UniProtKB/TrEMBL annotation:
Pfam families: SBP_bac_1 (PF01547)
Organism lineage string: Bacteria, Pseudomonadati, Pseudomonadota, Alphaproteobacteria, Hyphomicrobiales
InterPro entries attached to this UniProt entry: SBP
Keywords: Periplasm, Signal
Name by which UniProt lists this protein: ABC transporter substrate-binding protein
UniProt key word Signal: yes
UniProt keyword Cell cycle present: no
UniProt organism field: Falsochrobactrum shanghaiense
Signal peptide: 1-31
């Protein structure tokens, strides 16, 4: 095991052998050494993990609902650090499909993806199905609040998105900063009315978001009692955006930030988005290593990199609200730290990676539908 001297008080220099860069001296093959800085809180034997990863096939497969474009900055930064990983493939699949593939591959004992992205409703299932994921303790976990970084065993939260209110500035001339602002403007317009888009609670995404918010701040039901009778449910943020652009909807409560923020930037002032100061649901994304990963050591390196400062900066650059504090600002985007700093602490409602109580969900659904039907 070979280590360099301390470069800074917080970093250690580690020499990693890069198997793809070979040269010959006097008939002996030598691997070129790549100088990698590791934080001082990494274990002293981390070099052995790098060595083991280099002996794998230089590939990595990710099951994720995010696009290749969102992953590209992360892949590039990771491969710059570990150039022996030559091929990273992202399979763009939704959360429930990730779970079903994990179960199928586990039951058959077949090789699977390496890194799996997990949404809250799937993370709740993995609490009781730990055989689907590889046990791993990341050294980066120590740099985060314990109640944020690991929402379920062997799962690591890496980004937490605020669901935003989007609105059409030509229809709503007054600035919007809260859910109450939407309700107040509906009242001002009277029966001639404004139409507001909401997400359809038949989807687990929408149900968990609205339930978490209104369970956290039940006083907001007063505002939704005004909004819901003037609303229509939509199946996606994309459809909400289209109807905001055409003016069919004056506002949308709530939308994915990854859909709305780029649209605002390109709208020439027609659209605006806000993180509601009286209550905002936040939805996280976590990653685990698949139990049947054919490249478990490379997967561990990638997971650690995602949680590192440079990995989190790349995640933010790709358009996702990374959760590490102290990241450099990216124009038109925000980190979790920036989003939560913009509103009161009691307005932050983070969707848990746990099963929602069935009886309470049933009562919530009945109340929601009855309110919308008024």
């Amino acid at each position: 095991m070979k280590y360099g001297p301390l470069l800074q008080a917080t970093h250690r220099s580690v020499l990693a052998l890069t198997g793809s860069m070979m040269f010959f001296i006097g008939g002996w093959a030598h691997a070129a050494e790549t100088n990698i800085e590791l934080p001082s809180y990494y274990p002293s034997d981390y070099q052995s993990l790098i060595d083991a990863a280099q002996k794998e096939d230089g590939s990595l497969v990710i099951y994720s609902s995010y696009t290749q474009e969102a992953w590209n900055p992360v892949f590039k930064a990771f491969q710059d650090k570990y150039p022996f990983v030559k091929n990273i493939k992202n399979l763009d699949i939704e959360g429930e499909e990730v779970y079903q593939r994990l179960r199928m591959e586990s039951s058959r004992g077949t090789p699977s993806g390496d890194i799996v992205e997990i949404q809250p409703n799937i993370g709740a299932k993995l609490r009781d199905e730990q055989e689907l994921v590889l046990p791993y303790t990341s050294p980066e976990a120590s740099q985060y609040p314990s109640d944020l970084i690991q929402p379920y065993p062997n799962g690591y939260q890496y980004a937490v998105s605020a669901l935003v209110i989007g609105y059409n500035t030509k229809i709503l001339p007054k600035p919007v900063g809260s859910i109450k602002d939407i309700a107040d403007q509906i009242k001002e317009f009277g029966d001639s009315g404004l139409m507001v888009g909401v997400r359809n609670i038949s989807s687990s995404f929408a149900l968990t978001a609205y339930y978490t918010l209104l369970n956290h701040k039940p006083e907001l039901w007063e505002q939704f009692e005004t909004i819901l009778p003037h609303s229509k449910p939509e199946g996606s943020s994309g459809s909400l955006l289209t109807k905001l652009q055409t003016g069919e909807y004056a506002a949308a409560v709530f939308m994915s930030d990854s859909t709305m923020l780029p649209a605002v930037a390109q709208s020439g002032g027609l659209l605006a988005a806000v993180i509601a100061k009286d209550g905002t649901p936040f939805l996280g994304g976590a990653v685990s290593i698949a139990a049947n990963s054919p490249r478990p050591n490379t997967a561990k390196l990638f997971l650690d990199f995602m949680l590192s400062h440079e990995g989190q900066q790349a995640i933010l650059k790709g358009g996702r609200p990374a959760i590490r504090n102290g990241l450099e600002k990216v124009d038109g985007l925000y980190s979790f730290e920036e989003a939560t700093s913009a509103i009161p602490a009691d307005a932050v409602a983070i969707v848990p990676f746990s099963e929602l109580p069935a009886d309470q969900v049933s009562a919530f659904t009945e109340r929601w539908k009855a309110t919308a039907a008024k």
